[in-house]
Amino acid sequence: MKMIKENNIKLIFLSLSLLLIILIFFFPFFWIITSSFKSPEEIIATSTTIIPRSFTLEHYNKILFNSDFFIYLKNSLIVSFSSMITSIILSVSAAYGLHKLKFYGNKFVEYSLLVTYAFPGVILLVPIYLLFAKVNLLNSYFALIIVNVLFATPFAVWMLKAFFKLIPNEIEEAAYIDGASRYIVISRIIVPLAAPGIASVSIFCFIISWTEYLFASILISGDNLKTLPVGLAGIVGQYQIDWGFLLSGAVLASLPVILLFVFIGKYFVSGLTEGAVK
Amino acid sequence: MKKNNIEGWLFVSPLIIWISLVILVPIYIAFELSLFNVKIIGTSGKFVGIDNYIKLLGKSKFLNASLNSLYWIIGNAICQTFFAFTIALTINYKFPGKKIMANWIILSFIIPTVVVVVIWKLMLSSSSGVINSVLIDIGLLDEATGFFSSPNKAFISLVLINSWRWSPFLALIILSGLNSINREMYDASKVDGANFIQQFFFITFPNLKSVLFVLGLVGTLLSFNIFDIIWLITKGGPSSATTTLPLLIYETAFTKFRISQAATLSIITSFLLLLFSIIFIKSMAPNEDD
User: Fold this and answer.
1) Between residues 149 and 208 of chain B, which touch chain A (CB distance below 8 Å)?
2) Rounded to an integer, what distance in angstroms lies between the CA atom of residue B144 and that of residue B136?
3) What average pLDDT does the structure give for chain B?
4) Which residue of A119, A143, B178, B285 pairs with A137 in a disulfide if CB–CB is 3.0 to 4.6 A?
């Protein structure tokens, strides 16, 4: 009797929280995607309807063929891919050193990496701007890559920890006994075994770079080098917002990360959830 | 396992060098700037020693922004803990569609912040926002309200928007902690007659220590650093109610062109965050046996 009652309470809790989660975390996406196909009058109408009454492609037409969208897209892709690849090389190497080799001071390095989250952000903005101005790095992809790697790698190393710990030391030791070099062990054993971890870290680094706004808005001033978030923010800041234009831009700017997520997103989620933080 | 000092450092050093260069050199530059009186970028100013620090600490703007940052961190911590635990505990149950939800709940985290801003500016718009019309339809509001028009409403709205972005990501990290808890403990407690609320407080929560440590540390620092969501929605207003320290630094440097003051603010802020981190790690770091 008591069991049944408890199960009922659980069921009510579960349904309620599911409903809440869907309403809060999924409905907004439904809303902006459908709105981006509505006529300008319907978007700003005071009475809102859940099911759209109009359908138009005019906003997408405008953003694809009558704006700098493709320039921004190209810049975002170049910056994000370069940042991602650099971050992976640096963080896999560091995670290997930290969690497979163990050295004097490794706990200090591990915690310091987490604390580096204290310094990124706006605190570094002014001095980095001045530094990059001195060494002529302003208005270059490289400026953004340097900063994105800084934002992505500390957490990437932490995420890789769980995956590296799952690889038994015996496999490595057996390889050494057979005469394998460090290079062979890393490229043939460690990297393949940690592949799901590396996949999830890649997505994380890509997302961090893809969504970065602050530094991209300050370090880049040339229109031909701007990234998508900066381009979009330009429309948000206008006094008279063209909502249809803005919404279709927002949907298109999210599309690449969403597509990436469709293909390798499950590695990211399982990398975060099943990597057992032990 | 035996220690491997030289090789260990060798593998870590590329990242350490990269991070140190991009953090320490700018911090040094900021420190130098804070001792001078530089206004516009590229010009030089005269040496003023610790004048900037003394002036700044007495300014009401600084005090206001510090308090806002404190409220911001606390507000976000409360909201995000609530949302993240609700999501994590829900997804931890079996139900149809669980896999899809676990994969896509993180949607709000993978889209650019600017898109987050667009979504909520539209949904919370005072003239045509869907939230306003729903609230009016169900009788909670008499007429459309401006969610960013008064100091308190703007602050709370921003905390909720930021939590919306971050909670799913945090939920997945909590979920990783939940997955590492031994199932047998729940079965054993059931035999002893524990209900699921007791299970949460006596098994789930204590076993999440190492995950919660990382979330507490990184989450606080990440919350503190939030800039773009606030800047793009309210620009720090109305009447500085949403100006946190990051916004104050940005404003001082790039709209008021007081570079030395901005640098001084950066140094003070770095110091405060470093102090917080050290205290947090010293007092909360879980003992790991490895």
Assistant:
1) 164, 168, 172-173, 175-177, 179-180, 195-196
2) 7
3) 86
4) A143
What pLDDT does A216 receive? 94
Task: Cis check for the bond before A256: say yes or no (omega within 30 of 0).
Answer: no
CA dihedral A11, A15, A20, A23 (to 10 degrees): 170
**What are the tens digits of pLDDT across the range B28-63?**
888 888 898 887 776 777 788 788 888 888 888 999
Please tell me the distance from the alpha carbon of residue B162 to that of residue B225, in angstroms, as a whole number.
12
- Residue A69 CA to residue A87 CA, distance in Å, equals 26
* Strand spans (E) along chain B: none
Nearest CB among B3, B179, B273 relative to A273 is that of B179
Collapsed DSSP state (helix, strand, coil) of residue B45: coil
Q: How far apart are CA A117 and CA B225, in angstroms?
A: 9
Let me know: does A147 contact A138? Beta carbons within 8 Å: no
Measured between beta carbons, which residues in chain A are less than 8 angstroms from residue B6?
103
Cite the DSSP H helix spans in chain A.
2-21, 27-35, 40-43, 58-65, 69-96, 106-115, 122-134, 141-166, 169-177, 182-184, 191-193, 195-211, 214-219, 228-236, 243-273
Residue of A41, A89, A126 best to disrupt the B interface, most CBs of B under 10 A: A126
Which range in A72-76, A200-204, B260-264 is most confidently predicted, on average pLDDT?
Answer: A72-76
- The span from the CA of A264 to the CA of A273, in Å, is 15
Instruction: Provide CB contacts within 8 A for B131, sequence distance 6+.
Output: B123, B124, B147
Helix H or strand E encompassing B85: helix B60-91
CA-based radius of gyration for chain A: 23
d(CA A3, CA B68): 47
Q: How far apart are CA B2 and CA B7, in angstroms?
A: 12
Q: Which two tokens stand for residue A162?
A: 């769980």
Q: Which of B12, B144, B253 sits opposite A97 (nearest CB)?
A: B12
